[in-house]
Automatic annotation (TrEMBL):
The keyword Signal applies. This is M23 family metallopeptidase. It comes from Alicyclobacillus fodiniaquatilis. One of its GO terms (molecular function) is hydrolase activity. Keywords: Hydrolase, Signal.
Amino acid sequence: MGRWDHARIAGVSLGALALCLTPVNHVHASVSAQVALTPLYKEYADTNEVPWALLAAIDRYAELTKSKTDHEAAPYYGYNFQPGTWSGVANPNLDDVNPASIHMFAGFGEDADGDLLALPWDEADRIAALAKWLSCETELDDDDEVAVWNLFRDPVAMERIFAFEKIFETFGMNATSHCFPIAKQYNFTVKHTFGAGRSWGGRRVHEGVDIFASYGTPVLACSYGFVEMEGWNRFGGWRIGIRDTSNLYYYYAHLSSFSKGLHQGDLVVPGQVIGYVGSTGYGPPGTAGKFPPHLHFGIYKDTGLHEWAFSPSGLLNQWVRQKQKIIQTPVKSTKEDED
Ligand SMILES: [Zn+2]
């Protein structure tokens, strides 16, 4: 058994366990299995001169948005090549695992671990092939973005993958801690009203919980992530949307103001002040005071095809018991934006 078989087996058993857990736990299970692959991303990124965090980000996004059918067809972690890309398009054997004939047909399948087989389900072979493919693509266009576009052909995938890359690059793959979204030294009351009816804005249900607190109480980022949305919405007032590398979207609404210097695209860490409790919303920009001040907090899960809200109560109950470290300074990404 090679040293990487360990990681693969861990992934498989976590996958089986996830069947009896909620979707969130499933995400966390596969995410923790991916951390074990970090040395492989780094090794094959180095040999192919591509960014390791981009390889990890492609794998993460592919895993989180994989359909049930794709999962059954290829029950292993991350990005899976089409058979023709692995074996070579003209190769009569689309399931070819012989490195010599794969290379003859210009396939991308690799034997990275030296077992004389190029196996799409072997983590080393698969990640080495992905790195080689990325290196070839970026050589053609001198552009990461075109390469990633060719893998997913989806603008949402592009946005998420490059954001994941920035987060992995800046914080590593082990940055998974969380924080309760209100500074706990202030008074607050959580109303667990997920799914209740709403009176304003037509027929809709309450897609979150309300945490009542005084005007100006600091609102904190509850995960590592990036600011996907910041601005006005007639329901949410001044609101912020933060996405993490599990493709969960945290929605913070009715703020009185945003933290100074925080902008769309910025990275955040758990405990970082992102804004302050207010009562904005239910009208045109600037409307406030139509209800008592509170933070509306929602979590949405995105699987690529569907996005839905789930009750954040379980997570909030867990986070409220944890120690808080409040961070005032905005985080600087180590990867510079090229635009
Ligand atoms: Zn609410």
